[in-house]
Amino acid sequence: MIRWLLLGAGLMTLALALSPAEEAKKQRRLFLEQSGGVHPGELFVAMGEELFQTLEGQGKTMADCDFGKGPGVLEGAYAELPRYFPDTDRVEDLDTRIKSCLENVLGLKYEEDFGREEVVALASYIASFSNEMPINVKVEHPKEKEMFALGEKLWFWRAGQMDLSCAACHDRYPGRRIRLSPIRSPEQGLSDHWPAYTFSFDKMYTLEDRINFCYDSIQIPHPEFYSEPHIALALYIRYRANGNLLDVPGFTR
Amino acid sequence: MRRLLWLLVLLVPVLAVDEERVERAIASGGERFAAAMQQDDSERICSRYPQGIPADQLPGFIERERAKVVYPEQLYGDWRRGRDIFTTPAKGNCYACHAGEPGEPAFGDVGPPLTNYGVRGRSEAVVRYTYEKIFSSWITVPCSTMPRYGVNGRLTPEEIADLVAYLLDPESPLNPAVGGGP
What we know:
By secondary structure, chain A is mainly alpha-helical.
């Protein structure tokens, strides 16, 4: 009995000693073994693919949408988002770009013709064309510079009942744990695996959802989807992660 | 040289965003988000100097934080109630960052372990220091990651006094080294 307890304690210490990235890899492997090798994220990618091919409006399809590499080109597009788009004259992240494409090019209405679920599936599909590519976000256009500066402000912005900011944990304590959850900095891959399948909720979530979890957990009601705080933080975090390889659709607890 | 100066003049307004622009971005996140993002004087300073507050601003910062502390009649409450506050996620949620009772394996390591915090004894100075640390950790460590539980009203002065007892009482299971334990 005592021997088993000691072994258990030993294994636990070992698990706690793994780096955040190794821990994530281990959990992913265990889950895949248990689920017969099927990554549930792929189901959302397939759903997104079907939507991408069937949605239409005003005589256009999503192949007429430009995600930054030209109309219909998806390869590597997500690796360079968020970016400035001349047609909307603003910086957009993937979620926002999908919404503005469906609204402006196809003439569809959000929450009538499509909703959050469709955006997430489409984001998973489009992101999958950048899997294993290095993140390559630029801060060149004046509006990209402004958005980056906003993202930096928000990153360090301490507020709410817990007095926290993104930086208070992700810059000061990367590698440590909140309860049992490992903390990562942007450079360590905080954002590299989103959109990700999250097995505790059995759902697919994008980077915007991830940012929302963070705000909710520090007692700040999250910003609305597609709003500037999302775009600004995504630009800031992804810029700091430039060169990291995307791992999408990701897989997480 | 003159060209360099021009470059600087051109660069500055691009890199810096003015407060009004930041407020507009935050407002775009919705009313509830914008309301929660309001800052007090100290939060504003901590956000502005993430690498540390300039030395000349420190004394004023600490003085203002100290002035926010409200004291209950008894700084030392009930350790059993304090134990609940320590563990409850909607209250102290202390295990998120600190190790506590030796039997609890699910703890964070952002803050120092609090196991056997009670070895400090229970002098008036220790009790007062502990109370103030929880009420506003920024008195002793300006801009610490630890939330200011009292300043933000996350815990009442009485609840903080209960936590003080849980941390210091010889009977508290947090303090096996001074006799506490299950």
